[in-house]
Specification:
Distance between the termini: 76 Å
Number of helices: 5
Number of domains: 1
Structural class: mainly alpha
Radius of gyration: 20 Å
Strand content: under 5%
């Protein structure tokens, strides 16, 4: 086994292990609205954007399948977290909007 192939295998294995670490966070966010509210959309959105650049780089410049797969799973994990947090904020905003409009709707305005 060459150094390049060993490093490629190590990168793929460690990258997939790191991607598996999204699992507990995603499960917590699915189960708890407060966890979804606590996520920073700016931070996770920024990490997602950087990871998307990494995926494009891995695909266009590097062209190594292991790197593309690891980057794609990283993007997927981050996208799920951003989506869950954004969807919760949307639900909260709609709830507040409907709660504020309630009396006006009840009065026929």
């Amino acid at each position: 086994m060459t150094l390049v192939s060993a490093l490629s295998a190590l990168y793929a294995a460690s990258g997939m292990a790191a991607c598996a670490c999204y699992g507990p966070q995603i499960l917590r966010m699915v189960r708890q609205a407060e966890a979804r509210r606590a996520m920073s959309l700016a931070a996770w959105g920024g990490w997602l954007a950087v990871s998307l650049v990494g995926l494009v780089y891995a695909t266009v410049v590097v062209g190594r399948r292991e790197m593309m797969v690891v980057c794609a799973f990283n993007v997927l994990g981050q996208a799920v977290i951003v989506w869950l947090a954004a969807a919760q904020r949307w639900r909260d905003w709609r709830h507040m909007k409907m709660a504020g409009a309630g009396p006006a709707i009840a009065k026929g305005i």
